[in-house]
# Entry
Amino acid sequence: QVQLVESGGGLVQPGGSLRLSCAASGITFSVNAVYWFRQAPEKQREWVAHISKGGDTYYKDPVKGRFTISRDNAKNTVYLQMNNLKPEDTAVYYCKAGSPAYWGQGTQVTVSS
# Structure
């Protein structure tokens, strides 16, 4: 049984940082691309970043230079380091992996003063 569990969300002031984690069981991240998506209220879920099984990383333009995706193969966990957060980054963040796709339950990120 595949399970993805996100954690690390919270309330942060603009300019602050958070690190999200996506821990997996039943699927090996090192042989799968792993994606971060987010969904803001009343908006479509959108791709934010992903890391290929080879370790290449890709980012949505608005987060380039602020977000970093990484993978710890020993812990079978993918991280999303988010720096210089902005109010428009407020959303529920989800990780996705595998084919067929498996999703986590999401973690709320709120950027507000």
The radius of gyration is 13 Å. The mean pLDDT is 96. The longest strand covers residues 18-25. DSSP finds no helices and eleven strands in the chain.
